[in-house]
Design a protein that fits this description.
single chain, 854 residues, alpha+beta, Serine Threonine Protein Phosphatase 5, Tetratricopeptide repeat, four-stranded antiparallel β-sheet, 29 helices
Amino acid sequence: MAEVEEQGRKLSEESTDESEEEDTEEEPKLKYERLTNGVTEILQKDAASCMTVHDKFLALGTHFGKVFLLDIQGNVTQKFEISSVKINQISLDESGDHVGICSEDGKVQVFGLYTREGFHENFDCPIKVVALHPQFSKSNNKQFVTGGNKLLLYERNWLNRWKTSVLHEGEGNITSVKWRGNLIAWANNVGVKIYDIGSKQRITNVLRDNTSLRPDMYPCSLCWKDNTTLIIGWGCSVKICAVKERDPTEMRDLPSRYVEIVSAFETEFFISGLAPLADQLVTLYYVKENSDHMEEEFRTRPRLDIIQPLPEGCEEISSDALTVRNFQENQCRDYRLEHSEGESLFYIISPKDIVVAKERDQDDHIDWLLEKKKYEEALMAAEISFKNIKRHDVQKIGMAYINHLVEKGDYDTAARKCQKVLGKNMDLWENEVYRFKTIGQLKAISQYLPRGDLRLRPAIYEMILHDFLKTDYEGFATLIREWPGELYNNMAIVQAVNEHLKKDPTNSILLTTLAELYTYDQRYDRALEIYLRLRHKDVYQLIHKHNLFSSIKDKIVLLMDFDKEKAVDMLLDNEDKISMDKVVEELKDRPELLHVYLHKLFKRDHHKGQKYHERQISLYAEFDRPNLLPFLRESMHCPLEKALEICQQRHFVEETVFLLSRMGNCRRALQMIMEELANVDKAIEFAKEQDDRELWEDLISYSIDKPPFITGLLNNIGTHVDPILLIHRIKEGMEIPNLRDSLVKILHDYNLQILLREGCKKILVADSLSLLQRMHRTQKKGVRVDEENICESCHTPILPSDTAQAFGVVVFHCRHMFHKECLPSPGSIPGIQYCNICSAKRRGPGSGILEMKK
């Protein structure tokens, strides 16, 4: 089989024009191989004159009057000696059980292949064509036609005799005939006719276009595409005819069917054969010697084209020039094209050669892609059609692609394709790794090595890591981060890194990688030391992930120096593992760090670190004065005397004022504001906060000889102190800045207060009236008294069991009920009775509203 394929490929290479192959990269549509075996021996001694194709076998006629039955591979299965001269045509029925043969000496034989019984006749003229009814074996009246100088129809009657009918004559020799269903198509010197055997009517006559061509040299090619579509090729003309049913209303004396030419076009070369291929046409061309379209040495090579018919033309899909044996000696009439409808096989028959053309399958497509070095497309095609390919293996194609990429020097792509191609084959993986090592490209393949459930031997990974350690520290660090620690011997790699650190002890990349290796090996203390030494950002993640708090108790200062915020957050979040006292003890010699820790602790919880609040006063004063006053305001545990002492030593006026006021020495605090800050606004604000008349007096006394202070007081005192007190104490003749504006503001504020009071009074009166009316409406409503109610004094039912007797009940607005005799005597105000229960809480709502008597 491999020999046949190689022969086919060789023929295909021979049959494709080399100049066109250089210009185009289009993949051929068909592949070719010679029909060999018994055919080769036959054609060495004889020459092929005709051939008919059946799905099961082939029938070959020769110039020496012999007919050979062949299998699909060309082996001879049967041989018939029919005549001593050329066999003109062979016809088979659909079942392949009967054959019809005609020869140049006028012999016609129709017989069964499994029995020689049949029709045997000698005519006095050459018989050019013969055609059996497609259902010859199954029909009772066996029918066939022969054509010489006239077309004769033979059918066997009920007496088992052959009846002859002339279908056509008088227009020269019949050169071609094709029978499909009930339709017989034939060609003579004038044109093509179609006869309906069912209605016994000739339904069309398609005239031949180029009458200058000799019919015997350029015979007509007929081919049925289906039961109603006939393809006619004659000379350089192609016509596609559709047989259609005629409308019964238009028949009159016309046949029941008619023919419509649906497509007609001219070709570049002479047509030797036609065959359908789906909705396209396969055409066999004879190229005349005087054609200017081809090179001199290829002028008479036949061509096999695939064309797409259009209504008024055609489009060429593919074109192959075929090198058949002795093609230089052949004429147009020497070529024939036969096809097998079942398998889309096309047979090109010439006197000394038979070539089989077939559609290319997926294997052929991949062959072509590999030949053109389109390995990626070949790999993709193989993956998509892996169930249908027979000669190719996806992995082998992938390996060829990888080899091609390596040869090109595209190592990165080659390494990337290894993942897809090598898959789970660990032996192939190891071979590729060693190949990449040989060419010095381990770096390219390293990132694609298996690292999941399927793994290579640890030695492979270690080899790559050692190679990176020699040439690329960053690449080595990347692999250590990306590869799981189980892939290689961790201790061996640690030892190798330590050897390199002896040469370069400060290399941060190697140190970081060593810390990661220690982490994989669960030696977290060593990893932590390296991270702290390098101030690496992952140190906190390492501590949290592996719970290394016991290892950092003596390294708190280092952590704080690296990142105060992260360190403090971590320490505060894990107080159960590192106590607050331990942290304070470690930071006692670094007060600035201690302040950061205690400050965040205070922000989280004002009471948790209360025993350190006294120490925090000096820390705030030293390192963070802006937060000292908020601390003093919020802390309930700092000693005020100590705080006052520190603030006075450092002359922190605002903090001292706050402490004095908190300790009750408001006058001293106000004095400091006026004397040391000289800020009347703050003094006024302080006096407002304390709301102490004596402080206001002190403030006025201190400000009375200071015009700017008087202005500030006039602008702000109106709502707290009567401005007249201040105005009366102003000395006559004292010049006060913006006095008029201040007085206007005082009057405006006074008017505003009066308006507010009046407005409030109106609202109060309106609300009081509304509430009084609502209460009056409520009190006017009746109160339900029934057997379920009880006296709040004696706790017996409020209504007597015998309602016919006289009784008295008192019901209050509070809904408490009493028997009249159970109430105490009225109060000091005659006529007003109070509820005993509610009068202890308030007066008024419990006044009696209803007295029931009966």
